[in-house]
Amino acid sequence: MNKKIFIFDDNTDILDLCTLILEDAGYEIKTSATSNNIVDQVSAYMPDLIFMDNWLPDVGGIDATQSIKADPSLKHIPVIYFSANNDVKALAETAGADTYLPKPFDIQELEDVVSRYLNN
Fold this sequence. Notes:
With 120 residues, the chain is of the alpha/beta class. The chain contains 5 helices and 5 strands; from the N terminus they run βαβαβαβαβα. The protein has one domain: Rossmann fold. The protein is 42% helix and 20% strand. β4 (79-83), α4 and β5 form a beta-alpha-beta unit. The longest helix has 13 residues, at 12-24. The protein starts with a strand and ends with a helix.
C-alpha cells in the first residue's frame, strides 16, 4: 500500500513538479489548487502527509492548516508548510504545521522531508 500525499498549491508548475518527483519515489499523490472546504478535501482522501502552500486563494494556508489541526480525525496527519516567503518558519509555527520547506527547494530536500515523516 503506497503512502498518500496531498499537496495544496495554486501553482500548477509546483504541483506538477512535486507530483512527478514523489510519484517517481513511489508515493500516491493528490493535488488541489485551493484549500476551500479543507476538512472535506482531506477527509475524502485521508493522506499520510500534507504539503500546504502559504498563498492560496480564498482560504490561506494558515487558516487551512489550523482547520486540519483542529479536527480530531485529521490532526495526526503531518503538515509540511511550504512557501517562498522569507518568514516561512514563523508562518509554519503560526499555522501549527509540523515542519516547513522553503521554496525554491531542490529534489533532495523534498524527498528528505517526506521520508522523515513517512519512512519511520
